[in-house]
Design brief:
The protein is mainly β and 464 residues long. Helices cover 5% and strands 50% of the residues. It has a single domain, classed as Porin, CATH 2.40.160. The chain has helices spanning 15-28, 45-48, 63-66; strands at 77-94, 99-102, 114-121, 133-140, 146-148, 161-163, 166-176, 181-192, 201-206, 218-224, 227-240, 246-255, 258-268, 271-282, 284-296, 300-312, 321-322, 328-329, 338-350, 358-369, 387-399, 403-404, 408-409, 420-432, 435-437, 447-463.
Length: 464
């Protein structure tokens, strides 16, 4: 184990090992392939198809993620289940002209990130006095995926692969204060899932040949941890039509900072060298959303929504490393706060003559995200680039005497059989701006980076 001298410093012959631990911990955190560093926004096909502009609509169980207050609009009991299939690649050209291509764990990232939402109005559960209250539970993957590069990449002493299988467990409650105003709150419990990959955060790289570790040796750092935050929101619907459906909705959402302690081990060629720990700070976020329905009749609906979000990545000031001997080695990150702007629309046919007993929706959207990571602390494992996201999608909801897939009754009299079955599909293409990194703290990282991502998301809905 590492020792501390009486002056509080590492002995000279152990300094290099300490530096390697710092480097490993620093690069442990990544695994996002979006312009928002670690964040993965699409957490449901209805919202993903609209460029994630959904916080002011929030009218299905995925409101647990996008605006908990919206759960008061979800009658009865509802479940939403789905996954996202992500593919794409990262292209890098070093300052010496060497080309490198990385990906997100294969042609399609596996295991895929998923989402599960369950909501229930207390009135539907047999407590009519509490019909203003709706409860829910969500299981999502809002941060982290995976990246990998060839073992001989020019920056392999910085990173060759990284994985962050982080999930969020979200118990939620929403209360309808009045016909126009609802509030909601959820606990956001972040932890690691053993059913996703290795079940821990993991970073791999190649030794540069120091501290007695031979050149080319495999270095790995892994660890786990749990942290928590809170989401609070409101939904205000100042204008409704004669049927009582909103024609203007305003959503406000606040997500608190969450600190995730990471405790792990540094391994060299599979053998443990030392313990190390750090804290991953997930950002606080503030969002305002406005949705307007120019058309909302018994036959069809058309919604347009704009969401503007402020993401506080500057809270990720450092990843200071704590060593077993009590020493701390500072490691600044210097990330900055960024805005995220999303615009989305949905056009819905309600029981059209050409498909009776069904609701059919067409959706599209656009999202712009800025880049929070400066050149000095840029990490190929995170791949943070300015991005423009285009989204398309469709939705089908079968009710009454309709049949799902032509065979399964969409509604039944039994309490165990749903009153509606839905399928929502979304496709996103993430167009990244290229970025040239100069003056990185690891000079092998300097170069030009490009990336593209295509994402397919599908969700099943069950209404009881």
């Amino acid at each position: 184990m590492l020792q501390v001298t009486s002056s509080g410093c590492l002995p000279h012959h152990r300094v290099a090992v300490g530096v390697m631990i710092v480097a490993a911990v620093v690069f442990l955190i990544p695994v996002r392939a979006t312009a928002q560093a670690l964040r993965f926004q699409p957490q449901g096909a209805v919202a993903a198809a609209q460029g994630n502009a959904f916080a002011a609509q929030a009218d299905d169980a995925s409101a647990i993620q996008y605006n908990p207050a919206g759960l008061t609009q979800v009658s009865g009991i509802q479940g939403v289940f789905g996954i996202a299939l992500l593919g794409g690649s990262i292209k890098a050209k070093s300052i010496s002209g060497v080309d490198t291509r990385g990906d997100f764990g294969g042609s399609v990232s596996f295991p895929p990130p998923g989402h599960t939402y369950l909501s229930a109005n207390l009135g539907a559960l047999g407590a009519p006095r509490f019909s203003a209250v709706t409860i829910g539970l969500g299981l999502t993957s809002p941060f982290g995926l995976r990246t990998r590069y060839p073992i001989d990449a020019p920056f392999n002493t910085a990173v060759t692969s990284a994985e962050l299988p982080l999930i969020a467990i979200k118990p939620t409650i929403a209360y309808k204060i009045s016909d126009a105003l609802s509030v909601g709150v959820s606990a956001d419990i972040y932890t690691f899932a053993s059913f996703l990959g290795e079940g821990h955060v993991e970073q791999k790289q190649i030794s540069a040949g120091s501290a007695g570790i031979p050149p080319g040796a495999s270095i790995e750092l892994n660890g786990t941890g749990t942290g928590a935050g809170v989401t609070a929101s409101l939904l205000y619907t100042p204008f409704k039509n004669k049927a009582g459906k909103p024609v203007v909705s305003i959503g406000l959402v606040y997500r608190s900072q969450a600190v995730l302690p990471l405790n792990g081990s540094l391994l060299v060629n599979g053998g443990k060298v030392a313990d190390a720990s750090t804290d991953l700070v997930l950002p606080q976020m503030v969002m305002g959303a406005l949705a307007v329905w120019p058309i909302r009749s018994p036959e069809r609906e058309w919604k347009v929504e704009v969401d503007v979000e402020y993401v506080g990545w500057s809270l990720n000031r450092n990843l200071d490393v704590r060593l077993p001997n009590g020493a701390t080695i500072p490691q600044p990150q210097q990330w900055k706060n960024v805005p995220v702007i999303a615009v989305g629309t949905e056009y819905k046919w309600l029981s059209p003559g050409w498909l009776p007993h069904w609701e059919v929706a067409a959706r599209s959207g656009y999202t712009y995200t800025e880049d929070p990571v400066p050149d000095r602390t840029f990490n190929p494992g995170i791949i943070s680039l300015p991005a423009h996201t285009l989204s398309l999608g469709v939705g089908f909801l079968c009710k009454g005497s309709g049949r799902f897939l032509g065979m399964i009754p969409c509604s039944g009299e039994s309490a165990l059989w749903p009153k509606g079955i839905g399928l929502d599909l979304a496709y996103q293409e993430w167009f990244y701006e290229s970025r040239t990194v100069v003056g990185n703290q690891n000079p092998t990282v300097d170069g030009t980076y490009h990336a593209f991502v295509h994402l397919g998301t599908f969700s099943f809905r069950y209404l009881f």
